[in-house]
Design brief:
alpha+beta, Rossmann fold, five-stranded antiparallel β-sheet, 20 strands, 34% strand, globular
Length: 374
């Protein structure tokens, strides 16, 4: 049985150092929920608080309506997958998967049936008699996942489970993990610093920084309408350039240093006044013009052909370095040194206040507001 995880006003301290000051969130039953952020942001600390491996200095943690703050970790019925796999080197694959079941003193027939089911589910049946040292990293991770799931936990906790794998295996294993989670429907809390990985597997993501959650939302919401500059730069690639909002003849105009300007009709009313801003422009949100001299003047420094898309790296007269992604054309790639002009897809770009604290554009959704009352 999966559970809903509720965290109200969590606090974590190590001596005089407060890692998490006041954190609240609600993870839905059966949801694949990811804690994403840079090293040291508190994501693993929070995961270990859910698991019972870290003490809780403040706040309340619930599995459904059961408060778990003081519950022994062994009684929380969690499955845990670690960065280093943590499978037993002196046991075969089969014995590793069966370990938790034997600890629960289940009947031999049930242990065998369950072990066989998860060996098959994780596609490691043929390795059942192998020792871990004879397995690849991806195979070892499948064993760790099978062992964690075999005990039928209410919650699956995963701490950077793919970071020790090479790039190709990471892509393969994140697909496996998502497929298994969909099949079983278990509430999953996943920790990673890899934003592409988070976007590939998650139903929702909490972006963390310095012990605080910046924004909670679906991958699409976080990518298209980040709540602040930190989220914009942490989720996906983006170009950050200076600009100015100006109210001219009743219109809200966005001006770039080059002189290029466009009308913005999606600015929130409370931000419609003259001010300096930071503009976040995803590489695919730029339109390249090589004929008409309208837009931001730029010179192409490099072009990288990647099949479906070509990535252009350019500089402007203002010294900004900008990346552009364009669909590859059959006939040509724009050559280095070419002078081009850039316009923006104004309905897609994001505009922040000068300090990057707030998105001034309509349509920002932050599930965190549901828990903080903002």
């Amino acid at each position: 049985m999966s559970v809903n995880i509720k965290i109200n006003h969590a606090v974590k301290r190590y001596g005089d150092n407060t890692i998490i000051t006041d954190l609240s969130l609600n993870i839905k039953e059966g949801e694949f929920f990811t804690l994403l952020g840079p090293s040291g942001c508190g994501k693993t600390t929070l995961l270990r608080m859910i698991a019972g491996f870290n003490s809780i200095e403040g706040g309340d943690f619930y599995f459904n309506d059961t408060r778990i703050n003081d519950m022994d970790p062994a009684k929380r019925n969690i499955g845990m997958v670690f960065q280093n796999y943590a499978i037993f080197p002196n046991m075969t694959v089969e014995k590793n998967v069966a370990y938790g079941l034997k600890n629960r003193k289940l009947p031999k027939e049930e242990i065998k049936e369950t072990t066989d089911r998860f060996l098959k589910l994780m596609k490691i049946e043929e390795y059942r008699s192998r020792m871990p040292e004879k397995l690849s990293g991806g195979q070892q991770q499948r064993v760790a996942l099978a062992r964690a799931l075999a005990i039928t936990p209410n919650v699956l906790l995963m701490d950077e489970p793919l970071s020790n794998l090479d790039a190709k295996l990471r892509v393969e294993m994140r697909t496996v993990i998502k497929e298994i989670q969909n099949t079983i429907g278990i509430t999953t809390v996943y920790v990673t610093h890899d934003q592409e990985e988070a976007m590939a597997v998650s139903d929702r993501i909490a972006v963390m920084n310095l012990g605080d959650i910046q924004q909670i939302g679906t991958p699409k919401v976080l990518y298209q309408r980040p709540t602040n500059l930190f989220v914009a730069t942490f989720i996906g690639r983006t170009n950050i350039v200076d600009g100015k909002l100006k109210i001219e003849d009743g219109k809200t105009m966005l001006h770039f240093p080059s002189g290029y300007a466009c009308e913005m009709d999606n600015i929130l009313d409370e931000y419609k006044y003259d001010q300096k801003v930071k503009v976040s422009i995803r590489p695919e949100e730029l339109v390249v013009d090589t004929k008409n001299k309208e837009g931001i003047k730029a010179i192409i420094d490099d072009a990288v052909f990647l099949g479906l898309n070509t990535h252009y790296f350019v500089h402007t007269d203002d010294g900004d370095k900008i990346e552009i992604i364009q669909e590859s054309k059959i006939d040509s790639i724009i050559e280095k040194g070419t002078e081009i002009y850039l316009q923006v897809k104004k309905e897609k770009i994001n505009i922040f206040d000068e300090n990057g604290q707030y998105n001034l554009v309509k349509g920002v959704i932050n599930d965190l507001d549901l828990y903080t009352g903002d």
